[in-house]
Amino acid sequence: MPELPEVETVRNGLIPHLVGRRISFVDLRRDDLRFPFPNGFEEGLTDSRVEAIDRRSKYLLFRLDNGLTWLSHLGMTGVWTIDSDGEGKHDHVHIEFDDGAVTATYTDHRRFGVMDLFATEDECEQKLLAGLGPEPLTAEFTILALKDALNGRRTPIKTALLDQRIVAGLGNIYVSEILHRAHVSPLKTAAVVAGKSGRISVAIERIHRQTNEVIFEAIEAGGSTISDFRGVSGSGDLGYFPHRFTVFNREGEPCKNNSCAGTIRRIVQSGRSTFYCPKCQR
């Protein structure tokens, strides 16, 4: 599933094509994706102008000039493509802008994506956005906020960091990378990592710093080429962050941390693969 860096890459790819343009035609090829399209979806989009494209966690937020926000979540296999003919088997949403001058097509062969439309002023109450935690690289994501969110949690730190209420936007790939760079075992509980005292632990400092660094690097690299992610040009443009993976998908390979002679191991936590080095992640 695309994580924060991939969704940010898609946002950056859509902005120059769609912002400032007016939606002239909306063609829904089916009644639903993961969930049914909301009532009045086509009517709410048609004749509105895209004023901005924002992102919250893994959700794209198209800000319209009629006071509505159009939300798009890519699920596992969703892709937005600019200037496609929209005639593919799995092209489920086809939108024309400025009377056909530009088109945007949403393709999703597994249909795990989501779209919604709501009043922008009600964003805090939108069911998918309410309760999300702070995002990396924001003023709200502080070391203290991270420690407070992890205090007392008995789940493994890997699982805790995947909880969108603790840190919004992280997924399986980047959490494995963060913990490896922070030298923290994914098997430790969140409570142990947070510590019992009010003092900020070294582990929390490292996780906080590496979360910001990994996400920044991944955005700069255009995300990762895992699964079905690609950019919006239709040419299959993909991210380059996998060239910087230190653990993900490297089972049985040597650890890349300095002065470590360990070997990367793969385990399963909460149904997801975790890659880590048992020698330097303790």
Helix count, DSSP H or I runs of 4 or more residues: 7
Lateral arrangement of strands in the main beta sheet: 1-6-7-5
Q: What number of structural domains do the residues give?
A: 2
Please state the structural category. Answer: alpha+beta
Number of strands: 10
Mean pLDDT over all positions: 92
Helix content: 10-25%
Low-confidence stretches: 226-230
CATH topology of the largest domain, what is it called? Helicase, Ruva Protein, domain 3
Strand content: 15-25%
- Sheet with the most strands, sense and barrel status: 4 strands, antiparallel
Distance between the termini: 28 Å
Which H/E pattern describes the elements? HEHEEEEEEEHHHHHEE
Summarize the structure in words.
A four-stranded antiparallel β-sheet has the order 1-6-7-5. The chain has two domains: 4-125, MutM-like, N-terminal (N-terminal domain of MutM-like DNA repair proteins, Alpha-Beta Barrel), CATH 3.20.190; 143-276, Helicase, Ruva Protein, domain 3 (Orthogonal Bundle), CATH 1.10.8. Helix 1 (4-18) packs parallel to helix 7 and helix 5 crosses helix 7. The chain has helices at residues 4-18, 41-45, 143-150, 157-162, 172-181, 190-194, 202-220, and strands spanning 23-28, 50-56, 59-64, 68-73, 79-82, 91-97, 102-107, 114-119, 265-269, 272-276. By secondary structure, the protein is of the alpha+beta class.
